[in-house]
Amino acid sequence: MKGQDRRPRFHVTAALIWKDRRVLIAKWLFAPVLAPLVRNRLIIFVLTGVAVAQVWLTAVGLPAWQCPFRSALGIPCPGCGLSTAIVFLIHGEWRAAMTTHAFAPFFLAGFALMAVVGVMPGRLHIVAVHRIAVLERSTGFVAFLLMSMVVYWLLRLPGWL
């Protein structure tokens, strides 16, 4: 041991700390969000049932679940208008749907995916959940969509005020 360098082998530098932060941010952004939801069939059926009920009530003109964000703060939330836009999509009115809320096709596709995965038989259900998780980890599309939706909301907000 005599004559050997006794400095620690691992030096903490600003570059290393920055790299660790980037890794943590990347892990957070690319963490599966949809896959854990579709893994549990009960969650799938509850979420899909609530979404179908909300859209149906909106479609027939009955009072649907009101936005708590808008009720409490007086401004719309990032999801305000989604139910109406999805009703427009179902009726084939794409222009009205996109004017009401541009993210309606993504939510409609997401709920349709959840419903399909929810009724898949055992082994096929597990494979689908795994593939969704791999897709989320490799692309980070759910985090990207959610962040894009917040930016979209912020851009639309002045028109509502």
Fold and architecture overview:
By secondary structure, this protein is mainly alpha-helical. It has one domain. The protein has nine helices and no strands. The protein starts with 13 loop residues before the first helix and ends with a helix.
- How many extended strands? 0
Largest sheet at a glance? none
Unreliable stretches (pLDDT < 50, length at least 5) are 11-18
H/I helix tally: 9
Order of helices and strands: HHHHHHHHH
The oligomeric state is: single chain
Strand residues, percent:
under 5%
User: Kindly, what is the distance between the CA atoms of the first and last residues, rounded to a whole number of angstroms?
Assistant: 72 Å
Q: What is the typical, i.e. mean, pLDDT?
A: 83
Radius of gyration: 22 Å
Shape: globular
- Taken together, the total number of domains comes to 1
Based on secondary structure, the structural category is: mainly alpha
| Share of helical residues | over 70%
Give a short overview.
The protein is mainly α and 161 residues long. The chain has helices at residues 14-29, 34-39, 41-60, 68-73, 82-90, 94-100, 104-118, 122-139, 141-160.
Salient structural properties:
mainly alpha, 9 helices, 0% strand
How are the elements arranged and paired?
Elements: H1 14-29, H2 34-39, H3 41-60, H4 68-73, H5 82-90, H6 94-100, H7 104-118, H8 122-139, H9 141-160
